[in-house]
Specification:
Number of helices of chain B: 8
Shape of chain A: globular
CATH class of chain A: Mainly Alpha
Radius of gyration of chain A: 16 Å
Oligomer: heterodimer
Number of domains of chain B: 2
Number of domains of chain A: 1
Distance between the termini of chain B: 29 Å
Number of helices of chain A: 7
Largest sheet of chain A: none
Structural class of chain B: mainly alpha
Distance between the termini of chain A: 13 Å
Radius of gyration of chain B: 22 Å
Chain lengths: 174, 196
């Protein structure tokens, strides 16, 4: 079996998994102000398990499928309108985000947690907040304040993703 | 899975997909610099007319923008509280115009037309040897086929765990989900290679 075919299959499967995780209705979590979706959880898992190159492809494919109009984003959203909207930067930011997760991932669970936070949270917000500012005309502090409610949920997702990914990585399957 | 595309033969449907995407990108760039609400109203009126020209009914429009509408409303309320009513109105007008303009393209351009544009845009990268457009098309088609399958798989795991009295927990569900997903990828890769 050629390695490349397996990579395509893994990228397609993980993309489908990110879609499925993202479409699960947002769930309320104790002590977290807003219900969370598992979309970025899937992105973190892809980065931690597949590494930077394939994870970048997974998220790029995910964004492509959403942009051509299939309702694969949380809440069944889709289309170029998402990119034109205030949260477009968070969607696009997940592509470099997944790559950074893959690059920063390491052998320990702690290292994976740092990677998930760095790529899955910091990089995503670094693109998402300026985009929100440009589209809405908000100042930095107000845009940052608007997204700060999502931080606790994202942190929990990074913790769970790093634990789960560590269990999978030990099996040396991919 | 339904897409945003609405089959039809309006003049907007007949316009080349690449041209529509290019114009949308230009409009998006231009609108970022417009803060005058009268200009924004004009832009919104023009875009609404275009959307009407595609043959989209109000009910079909609502089903396509519902998710984004609530997000926009929340943002307008937030802007109203932290800034001013003028900012909230300008924000609402600008974002609505952009959303509807993007919808004009999505409604009047089929997925295969959009994919043709995407693969055309990827051609320079292909010449550099960075991307293989055939593989992109394969992964795209494969993913669409697999979404229903994985969705079913997630529900199976959920039910199996519920039957054992476990509550919904991403930590315990993600491991079997990933293991099955990786195994399925191996099966599919073997099937593709066997066919050549």
């Amino acid at each position: 079996m050629s390695v490349k075919t397996k990579d395509i299959a893994l990228v397609a499967l993980f993309t489908a998994m990110v879609v499925v995780l993202g479409l699960i209705p947002p769930m309320p979590v104790p002590w977290v102000p807003v219900p969370i979706t598992l979309q970025t959880f899937g992105v973190m898992l892809a980065g931690l398990i597949l590494g930077p190159y394939r994870a970048g492809l997974v998220v790029a494919l995910y964004v492509l499928i959403a942009l051509v109009g299939l309702p694969v984003l949380p809440g069944g959203r889709a289309g170029l309108a998402v990119l034109a909207g205030p949260t477009g930067g968070f969607l696009l930011g997940m592509i470099p985000g997944a790559i950074v997760v893959g690059l920063a991932a390491g052998a320990s669970t702690l290292r994976c947690l740092v990677a998930a936070l760095l790529g899955g949270v910091a990089v995503v917000y670094a693109l998402g907040i300026p985009w929100l500012m440009v589209v809405t005309g908000m100042t930095f502090s107000k845009a940052a304040l608007a997204v700060v409610v999502f931080l606790p949920g994202d942190t929990i997702k990074a913790v769970i993703a790093s634990i789960v990914a560590q269990r999978i990585r030990r099996l040396n399957l991919v | 899975m339904g897409s945003l595309f609405l089959p039809g033969d309006s003049w907007l449907h007949r316009l080349p997909g690449g041209l529509k995407l290019g114009l949308l990108a230009m409009l998006g760039g231009a609108l970022m610099w417009v803060h005058d609400w009268r200009l924004l109203m004009l832009a919104l009126a023009v875009v609404s007319t275009l959307l009407w020209q595609t043959g989209l009914s109000v009910a079909m429009l609502w089903s396509r923008v519902r998710g984004l509408f609530w997000l926009l409303l929340a943002l307008m309320l937030y802007t109203l509280v932290v800034q001013s009513a003028e900012h909230a109105i300008a924000l609402g007008l600008r974002v609505t115009t952009l959303l509807l303009a993007a919808l004009v393209v999505s409604v009047s351009t089929s997925i295969s037309q959009l994919m043709t544009v995407v693969l055309w845009l990827l051609q320079p990268l292909e010449r550099l040897g960075w991307v293989d457009t055939q593989r992109v098309a394969l992964a795209f088609g494969l993913t669409l086929r697999l979404i229903p399958e994985l969705s079913l798989q997630w529900h199976d795991i959920r039910e199996a765990q519920a039957a054992r009295g476990l509550s919904a927990n991403p930590l315990t569900m993600a491991v079997p989900m990933l293991l099955r997903t990786i195994r399925r990828a191996q099966e599919i890769a073997e099937a593709i290679d066997a066919r050549g």
